[in-house]
Specification:
This protein is α/β, with parallel strands linked by helices. 42% of the residues lie in helices and 16% in strands. The structure holds NADP nicotinamide-adenine-dinucleotide phosphate.
Amino acid sequence: MSTTVTRVLKNGSKVPWIGFGTGTALYNRDAEKDVLRAIDAGFIHLDGAQAYGNEDSLGKAIANAKVPRESLWVTTKLGALNGQTVEESLKGSLQRLGLDYVDLWLIHTPTGLEDKLKDVWKQFIEVRNKGLAKNIGVSNFRIKDLEKILEGGDTEIPQLNQIELHPYVLKATQPLLDFQNKHGIKTESYGGLIPVSTKTDGPLAPVLKEITSEVAKRHGSPVTEAQVLLKWLEARDIIIVTTSSKESRLKEYLDALNVPQLTPEEVSAIDAAGSKLHFRKFGQHMDS
Ligand SMILES: NC(=O)c1ccc[n+]([C@@H]2O[C@H](COP(=O)([O-])OP(=O)(O)OC[C@H]3O[C@@H](n4cnc5c(N)ncnc54)[C@H](OP(=O)(O)O)[C@@H]3O)[C@@H](O)[C@H]2O)c1
């Protein structure tokens, strides 16, 4: 089944290739119904965060799902520490989620933690060693933030960095992707569908339309532009986090796995069109 396809982290953990996110559209909203709809559609990877203000409803969905907890991949992210230790903060998340552990625990952003990154990361390793999180990583980290926690060479790498990634930020993100490849830090994308949901009138639009029609011919059935963007991420072996309020679109995302791979020429054409415009929706600090 499509949802059992995984991407492998440097430590050998297998992450389901696509996740359903409870941020953006579900931010500060009850996510239970949407998460249950996603699980029913076939999603087993769920992406939460303290900052989304809905870990409790994500937890209710996990408790009420037809799929056992062990078959799910659950991510949450550290918000502001507010005087707590990392362990106290993670235990708060686990209580809201109704779980004994999360599969992935991320530092949501380096912003506000600049001077403490090395210490916070040390505490991340400790909670992982205690079994409260199976894997640890970061989000919205630039090269300079990664360097801060890696400096001295006396630590573990973050298993992944969750960042905005689509063709309109590729050029700006390439040095970070190269750095991560060099260190074995996997990339997890969010905002991958921005060229069809938000910035729809950019230089990629005609190229995406043409490639979508070519891929549909090879597939012998209709393909959507969103699926082609997911294939573009898949071609780079990148883990995807997306979301939708619609059952039909959730199925469309999962079905992208059955769509033929993009050719190297198609990937290059998307890269080239995307590089003509820089458009970032989230985390403006990434350009600093
Ligand atoms: N770490 C971070 O700082 C961070 C930041 C942002 C997001 N995230 C995570 O990533 C998740 C996904 O973020 P995202 O919303 O930016 O993801 P995305 O995959 O770029 O966009 C998903 C949105 O695209 C819309 N969409 C899909 N196909 C479309 C089409 N053909 N035309 C128009 N709209 C279309 C969907 O709307 P419908 O509901 O109408 O289908 C959905 O709301 C979040 O929930 C969160 O978990 C993390």
